[in-house]
Amino acid sequence: MNLSAEVLVGDNRKRLQELPDASVQTVVTSPPYFGLRDYGTKTWIGGDDDCEHIKDANKTKKFGNQEFNKNRPSREATKLPGYYFESECGLCGAVQEDHQIGLEQTPQAFVEELCKVFDEIWRVLKDDGTLWVNLGDSYAQSGQGGGGSYGDERPGWTKSPRKAPEGLKPKDLIGIPWRFAFAMQDRGWYLRSDIIWHKPNPMPESVTDRPTKSHEYIFLLTKNPRYYYNHEAIREPVSESTVGRLQQDIANQAGSERANGGKKENGNLKAVGDIELGRNKRSVWSVGSSRYKEAHFATYPPELITPCILAGTKEGDLVLDPFSGSGTTGEVALQHGRHYIGLELNPDYTELSRKRLTDAVGMFGDVTIR
Question: What 3 state SS string does the chain have?
Fold first, then answer.
């Protein structure tokens, strides 16, 4: 099979508009988590290209050579410049432009921007298609979480974390995954399953007033109540205790037949035939977290999303990831004979994808980045 892989660079809300209606069979993705990190996609429009772009033009160093220091930011300004939320440079008047999702001021704004992406996904997804979204949570102001604390890992917020968003208290679990899931329901999506990604090797946390976070969510959403889902492709091994019980059922059935001189129906015997096939996939998936060696940011492990692609598609179908990152979804899709389209805002990340996807398609296809 001649496989194809393509990564479109830019704002996914715009680049999605280039894809045909009902062209994608399944979408597997992990959007940026709320308030966790800046992915470095900001650009400045207008002003002075040589300016350091700080918020307040009066925040300049007041000691030493004034001519040398007049355009240098203060120590406070270097910790909290206008890079993240200030839209205009106080020195040259340049205006900030940033299309990344995840640094919104409130959980509500974050969820709304995320849902706008999936509004466009609705159009490109086939009527019998599936959407799989991995999303972690975070805490208001202080403390750690599955997605870190709100404002954590941002320059300038380390010692002075942001105030908790309106309606939340410091240390509140924000509930981002479920806010998103309910918002998607309100937009017409069917919420078919909340899958627990259990992490046997979670990140250590220094908290002593709550359990350590060791799970995230994967939501299975669909456009319609009937959709393509190949449960046979993702059956899992039957537990040893179940095998033992069913084997005993076989022995009991044989004894009953001998005693009665004929066959007797036993409802458990249907399940006996499933021992080799395996049982239906359950909703808790234990997969150790891992890091792609070429990436400096977190990626989900290929083993986590393999069931999503196998259940949601057939060979030759098209898989889409609107937050492509290092290309994990594409690698898994290609390895299982599916075509792939990824969308990525940061051009630097597409270089990670290029090698990874090229290795995955091998001699059977090519990778296009545009």
Answer: CCEEEEEEECCHHHHHHHCCCCCEEEEEECCCCCCCCCCCCCEEECCCCCCCCCCCCCCECCCCCHHHHCCCECHHHHHCCCCCCCCECCCCCCEEECCCCCCCCCHHHHHHHHHHHHHHHHHHEEEEEEEEEEECCCECCCCCCCCCECCCCCCCCCCCCCCCCCCCCCCCECCHHHHHHHHHHHCCCEEEEEEEEECCCCCCCCCCCCCCCCEEEEEEEECCCCCCCCHHHHCECCCHHHHHHHHHHHHHHHHHHHHHCCCCCCCCHHHHCHHHHCECCCCEEECCCCCCCCCCCCCCCHHHHHHHHHHHCCCCCEEEECCCCCCHHHHHHHHCCCEEEEEECCHHHHHHHHHHHHHHHHHHEEEEEC
